[in-house]
Amino acid sequence: MTSKIERLHAASASQAKQTLQFIGGQFIPGTSGKTFENRSPETGALVSVVHEASQSDVDLAVKAARQALSGEWGRMTVAKRCELLHAVADGITRRFDEFLEAEIADTGKPRSLASHLDIPRGAANFKIFADVVKNVSSEFFQMDTPDGGTAINYALRVPKGVVAVVCPWNLPLLLMTWKVGPALACGNVVIVKPSEETPSTATLLGEIMNEVGIPPGVYNVVHGFGPQSAGEFLTTHPGVNAITFTGETRTGEAIMRAAATGIRAASMELGGKNPAIVFADSDMDKAIEGTMRSAFANSGQVCLGTERVYVERPIFDEFVRRLKAGAEGLKIGPSNDPKTNMGPLISQEHRQKVLSYYKKAVEDGATVVTGGGIPDMPGDLANGAWVQPTIWTGLPETAAVVREEIFGPCCHITPFDSEDEVVGLANATPYGLACSVWTSDVSRAHRMAGRIEAGLVWVNSWFLRDLRTPFGGTKQSGIGREGGVHSLEFYTELRNVCIKL
Question: I want to staple 459 with a disulfide (CB 3.0 to 4.6 A). Which of 179, 378, 433, 445 is the partner?
Answer without folding.
Answer: 445
